[in-house]
Amino acid sequence: MTSSIISHLHFGGADISLWKKFRLFFTVGVVVLILSAAKVAVHYFGVEFLDLNGLVTSGIGGAVFIVGFLLSSILQDYKEAEKIPADLRNSIEAIDGDLACFAQTNDAFELRKARQLLLAVIDRLRDGLGHENDHKDVPPALAELARLTPILGQLEGMGMAANFVVRLRTNQDVIRRALLRIYTIQRVEFVPSVHVLVQTLVGSIVLLLLLLKTEGDPASALLFGFITYMFVYVLYLVRLLEQPFAKGHGSVDDVSFFLLDELERNLRRSLDVPDDAAREPVTTGD
What we know:
The protein is mainly alpha-helical. The chain has helices spanning 2-7, 18-21, 23-44, 54-81, 84-105, 111-128, 139-146, 148-153, 162-187, 192-211, 218-241, 258-272, 275-278.
């Protein structure tokens, strides 16, 4: 009965372990426990001197509003970043499909070399966003993409129609734009004053709660834990969302690359087959 009830709870549609999903929860929980211990010490030694009044509650309410407003704007940027992997896959598959069709009628064209370059772009991007490269080493992926330019420049001389060459170059520009967008997001802290505002608000509210006079009863402890959990969690969440492509931290909040993972498997599979079969366009089905 209990397992049936739990199975109908929507903990998320993705295939994610509960530990990874609640990793941030446990991290913030440890911080809240430490702050709660500090609150107990402050109460025990009688350091509390702030009285609960309307000004204090208004300040907490105002901080909640400001933090919520700032968090909503950050989430909008995160949703925009989630579209980038789809744009990358769409353009890479379009280039591969056009080149595969051209290779079927022109044996002189080296389709394998072009596919290796497309695969290298994905590999360099994933490596550059890894923890070892501080999640911002995108130039190697841009360099691999630039190596595709001479190949596209030879196509018209090999018999490809000019409009197809233009379409290939357009898709290459879309890939370059997406890579540059990732590079900018990972390197630039957008509006640093916003992050300073959130950090100072959270710090001020926590300090205010620590010095606020309480009765020392369980209700006061629960209320302190709830409010500090909310603000500290937001502080950690803002730090995670400001770099949505950070890989290698074990977080579930980074932008998923499953679309590129599937494409990479398909490209590798096409490189393992004989040359005649490799000239077929890469399909998305497994």
